[in-house]
């Protein structure tokens, strides 16, 4: 009887899977985001987006939406954007709950491309690489330019398929 051997996942897929699993802890009805910190092949921390500890989250208290206006991609008309301010982003939580020494030269795997605010924080955190899956076109150009200026490898994990039941499908965050 021949045994079939399961295909071993590469390290990028393995760590991105863990980021997606961390995202399942999120209670945000708009989007679940997870992040992991890796030094070499050692997992140093996980985080997800959500309300501060001990505070009712969006699923309990509702989203705390603010409206902002920002220029369109082509620099034309202003676009109204809604965002929740109750939630701490996964990348922010990751930085809050890991040590600076552990972050030096490390890699962050995050389910979604970091927004501008998170990108600024990551650029100053000591990490040397950011790997993401879902694209965020609104901030891509300026985030990519920042990472290039800082010498941080910034790449999308092409061809990646998240584990089943780990993505919020109808979010708009």
UniProtKB/TrEMBL annotation:
<keyword id="KW-0479">Metal-binding</keyword>
<dbReference type="InterPro" id="IPR002125">
    <property type="entry name" value="CMP_dCMP_dom"/>
</dbReference>
<keyword id="KW-0862">Zinc</keyword>
<feature type="binding site">
    <location>
        <position position="115"/>
    </location>
    <ligand>
        <name>Zn(2+)</name>
    </ligand>
</feature>
<dbReference type="InterPro" id="IPR035105">
    <property type="entry name" value="Deoxycytidylate_deaminase_dom"/>
</dbReference>
<dbReference type="InterPro" id="IPR016473">
    <property type="entry name" value="dCMP_deaminase"/>
</dbReference>
<protein>
    <submittedName>
        <fullName>Cytidine/deoxycytidylate deaminase family protein</fullName>
    </submittedName>
</protein>
<feature type="domain" description="CMP/dCMP-type deaminase">
    <location>
        <begin position="10"/>
        <end position="154"/>
    </location>
</feature>
<dbReference type="GO" id="GO:0006220">
    <property type="term" value="P:pyrimidine nucleotide metabolic process"/>
</dbReference>
<feature type="active site" description="Proton donor">
    <location>
        <position position="91"/>
    </location>
</feature>
<comment type="similarity">
    <text>Belongs to the cytidine and deoxycytidylate deaminase family.</text>
</comment>
<dbReference type="GO" id="GO:0004132">
    <property type="term" value="F:dCMP deaminase activity"/>
</dbReference>
<keyword id="KW-0378">Hydrolase</keyword>
<dbReference type="GO" id="GO:0005737">
    <property type="term" value="C:cytoplasm"/>
</dbReference>
<feature type="binding site">
    <location>
        <position position="89"/>
    </location>
    <ligand>
        <name>Zn(2+)</name>
    </ligand>
</feature>
<dbReference type="InterPro" id="IPR015517">
    <property type="entry name" value="dCMP_deaminase-rel"/>
</dbReference>
<dbReference type="Pfam" id="PF00383">
    <property type="entry name" value="dCMP_cyt_deam_1"/>
</dbReference>
<dbReference type="GO" id="GO:0008270">
    <property type="term" value="F:zinc ion binding"/>
</dbReference>
<feature type="binding site">
    <location>
        <position position="118"/>
    </location>
    <ligand>
        <name>Zn(2+)</name>
    </ligand>
</feature>
<dbReference type="InterPro" id="IPR016193">
    <property type="entry name" value="Cytidine_deaminase-like"/>
</dbReference>
<dbReference type="InterPro" id="IPR016192">
    <property type="entry name" value="APOBEC/CMP_deaminase_Zn-bd"/>
</dbReference>
């Amino acid at each position: 009887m021949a045994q079939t051997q399961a295909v071993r996942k590469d390290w990028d897929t393995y760590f991105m899977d863990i980021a997606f699993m961390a995202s399942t802890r999120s209670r945000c009805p708009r989007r679940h985001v997870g992040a992991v910190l890796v030094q070499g092949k050692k997992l140093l921390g996980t985080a997800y987006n959500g309300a501060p500890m001990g505070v009712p989250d969006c699923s309990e208290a509702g989203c705390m939406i603010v409206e902002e206006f920002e220029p369109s991609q082509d620099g034309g008309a202003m676009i109204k954007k809604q965002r929740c301010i109750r939630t701490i982003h996964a990348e922010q939580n990751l930085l809050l709950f890991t040590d600076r020494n552990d972050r030096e030269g490390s890699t962050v795997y995050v389910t979604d491309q970091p927004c501008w605010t998170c990108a600024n924080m990551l650029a100053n955190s000591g990490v040397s690489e950011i790997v993401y899956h879902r694209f965020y076109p609104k901030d891509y150009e300026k985030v990519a330019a920042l990472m290039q200026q800082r010498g941080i490898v910034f790449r999308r994990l092409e061809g990646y398929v998240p584990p089943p039941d780990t993505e919020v499908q109808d979010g708009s965050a």
